[in-house]
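Colleagues,

Please find the record for the six-part complex below.
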Amino acid sequence: MPEVLVHMVEGRTPEQKKMLLQKTTQAVVESLGVRPEQVTVQIVEAKADSKAKGGILFSER
Amino acid sequence: MPEVLVHMVEGRTPEQKKMLLQKTTQAVVESLGVRPEQVTVQIVEAKADSKAKGGILFSER
Amino acid sequence: MPEVLVHMVEGRTPEQKKMLLQKTTQAVVESLGVRPEQVTVQIVEAKADSKAKGGILFSER
Amino acid sequence: MPEVLVHMVEGRTPEQKKMLLQKTTQAVVESLGVRPEQVTVQIVEAKADSKAKGGILFSER
Amino acid sequence: MPEVLVHMVEGRTPEQKKMLLQKTTQAVVESLGVRPEQVTVQIVEAKADSKAKGGILFSER
Amino acid sequence: MPEVLVHMVEGRTPEQKKMLLQKTTQAVVESLGVRPEQVTVQIVEAKADSKAKGGILFSER
């Protein structure tokens, strides 16, 4: 605990995702004083035609 | 804000998903009086063998 | 199915939330051709000090 | 209702996922006294490079 | 891992919730062959006016 | 985008939650190269009797 979910569109590089997972874990550890092993972070990716902001699909931006 | 997640099984057409994203955004805008750009909607799709209703998999229906 | 989650800050009126639940259900029904009884929508509310956009808490806006 | 989401890394067999969906449904039914048809369970899978515990990716374990 | 979220309306007894948390954990352990300590289960409760099925609020059923 | 959800038990101080929201936002910005205004983070809190790890409720630890 805690469990973090990051919802975003596909297309990031493996390096970006690794950095995201590591930095988010670190943010939780520093803020709450928990041990790193207690923190899980999962990226929930959507295809670009399955996510919209302002009603505009990411596949049409 | 708000952020909407729609959890469903794979298999809808791109047209259905586009309509879902647009109509859901519109529903939020009309109900809460926010601007469209503030609303994100993400479809979280599962394979048919990864979702069940009443204990029966969608792949076995 | 589908199951919809709407994540937002507390403070909307009961009327706004009712309209949000009804219109979102309708959006799903019209887009996917499912029956209304198949659709659940849950609002996940956060206190204003438990949500941020751009790193700025909603309690400080 | 209720709607259950299980967040985990890819790689389980179809048999494991089927058992997971069925046993989780049963757990909800027995605990809350609802009918099975009221319970949906969806597995939200991440690629091994999209999930970390303790800041260590599942693809690097 | 895995992390389980159960979305439901408020109003269950502490005994029901305890049973739900324990039985769901057990379901995951038996299905996936993980150790209990790897499994977290969180109940995400909504007020009865913040959840609907078929467009009908649980507060109006 | 992205939208981050942090699932945890109640009981953190307002200062801890503020730091969590800010540092998590910063982690996303640095990793993905997005602008802060694109990032929302919501803490989804559970009562101690509504979350378990290893089948043991946080209210009984």
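Chain D is about 30% helix and 30% strand.

Comments are welcome before we finalize the supplementary table.
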